[in-house]
Design goal:
The longest helix is centred in the C-terminal third of the chain and has 14 residues. The relative contact order is 0.12. This protein has an 8-stranded mixed β-sheet with strand order 8-9-11-12-13-14-15-16. Strands 1-6-5 form a 3-stranded antiparallel β-sheet, with no helix packed on it. The chain has 2 domains: about 45 residues, no CATH class; about 260 residues, Aldolase class I (TIM Barrel), CATH 3.20.20. It is α/β, with parallel strands linked by helices and about 350 residues long. Helices cover about 25% and strands about 20% of the residues.
Length: about 350
């Protein structure tokens, strides 16, 4: 359904400036922004996808992937169509890119916000994940779910490309408990060429989420010949470590898809090299994705024994999961969610 959008202003000749995401679209009447789901109607901006889900599933939280947040629990996962990026390697392009170039309302299946919360509780989920496409572009819907979800004791999770504005971060952070942010590379030219975006806003989102107390994990899809050089991987690992060596880094294997069907799979050796680079940068928790059996367990940094064991999306976590069962060392794992308190801001 259509709903008045947030985070925009009217400018000259009935154009509107949308500052929800870092595309900062200036939209003419009768047109949408880059995402394809926010339309200017006579100088007023509307979202076209409010309450219209194209995916609603119960997933393991590890599928997001989040390995250090409520391990072993289920997350009610929802999405509308649309995305503010055009990643040539998108694995969900059938829904993320479905809205591009369209001016009419994009229809999914109606799911009112309160019903989404009810379903999450009925299915025994510990959280609601806004995922599959880019949750920033359906922010109005996400906010209307996130508020009652918190009241119901559920956590809110963003699986995001991080390409948002400071204003967007400010409206969601009070309701956000965890986020997996894609850091697709560390060169601005790569972001522009492969995703139609820029690097700096993504770095700022990761930094601000972490600084404000949102549990953050980072994912990098490693594509042969694009972002797989040791130098670029070292830049990514060093950036994450500069925030905290306890932030998990998920290094994911590329499979040919969408507009990159002729590219080869990422060699497993490349991923192992990336993991070594991550550890050399000081990161204590590096995981390989899309490679079953490779570095799925959480190792205790003190005694080096497996603390949380995983096989695919099946997780065997000790109780409590934030303590090594062998040596008792504390682990940076979120095991329960209460009213989230922002971290003390640095001077």
């Amino acid at each position: 359904m259509e709903k008045l959008a947030i985070l925009w202003e009217r400018i000259d000749e009935n154009r509107v400036h949308c500052f929800l995401c870092a595309q900062q679209c200036r939209i003419r009447p009768g047109h949408t922004g880059v995402c394809g789901v926010r339309e200017n109607r006579d100088g007023t901006l509307y979202t076209l996808v409010y309450g219209e889900v194209v995916a609603a599933n119960v997933d393991p939280i590890e599928k997001k992937p989040l390995y250090h947040f409520l391990p072993g629990t289920q997350s009610f996962s929802i999405a509308t169509v649309g995305c503010n990026l055009h990643c040539r390697f998108c694995q969900n392009a059938d829904i993320s890119q479905a809205s591009k170039g369209k001016l009419e309302t994009i229809h999914g299946t109606p799911l009112p916000p309160l019903r989404a919360v009810e379903l999450a509780r009925e299915y025994g989920c510990a959280s609601i994940s806004y995922t599959y496409t880019e949750p920033t572009i359906f922010m109005e819907y996400a906010l209307d779910i996130a508020r009652p979800a918190m009241e119901a004791g559920l956590a809110n999770v963003f699986v995001t490309n991080g390409f948002m504005t400071p204003e967007a971060r400010e409206v969601i952070i009070p309701y956000l408990h965890a986020a997996n942010v894609d850091l697709k590379g560390y060169e601005d030219a790569y972001y522009r060429r492969m995703c139609g975006a820029r690097l700096q806003p993504v770095l700022e989102t990761i930094e601000e989420f972490h600084r404000r107390g949102v549990h953050v994990e980072v994912t990098t899809l490693v594509i042969p010949g694009e972002n797989d050089s040791p130098e670029e991987l070292r830049h990514i690992a060093s950036f994450i470590a500069s925030l905290s060596v306890d932030i998990p880094w998920h290094i994911s294997r590329f499979f040919p898809t969408y507009e990159l069907t002729e590219r080869p799979l990422t060699p497993v050796q490349t991923l192992r090299q990336a993991a070594r680079i991550g550890r050399e940068a000081g990161l204590r928790y590096v995981y390989l994705g899309n490679v079953p059996g490779e570095q799925e367990d959480t190792q205790c940094p003190e005694c080096q024994n497996p603390a949380i064991r995983r096989l695919g999306y099946r997780t065997a976590a000790p109780q409590p999961a934030d303590q090594c069962p062998t040596c008792g060392a504390a682990l940076p794992v979120v095991t329960r969610v209460t009213a989230r308190q922002p971290r003390e801001l640095e001077a």
